[in-house]
Amino acid sequence: MKYIVVLGDGMADRPIDKIGGITPLEYADTPVMDKLAAMSEVGLSANIPAGMKPGSDTANLAVLGYNPEKYYTGRSPLEALSIGVDMEDTDIAIRCNIVTLSDDGRAYEEKKIIDHSSGEISTGEAAELIEAVKRELQDDIYQYYVGTSYRHLTIWKNGTVKELTPPHDILGKVIGDYLPDDEKLTTFMKRSYDILNNHPINIERAKKGLNKANSIWFWGAGTKPALDLFEDKYGKKGAMISAVDLLKGIAVGTGMTNIIVDGADGTLETNYEGKAEAAVKAVSEDGFDYVYVHVEAPDEMGHQGSLENKIKAIEYLDSRVIKPIYDKLTDSGIEFRMLILPDHPTPIAVRTHTSDPVPYMIYDSTKKFSHDINYNERQAEETGRIFENGYELMSYFISK
Question: Rounded to an integer, what distance in angstroms lies between the CA atom of residue 126 and that of residue 152?
Answer without folding.
Answer: 9
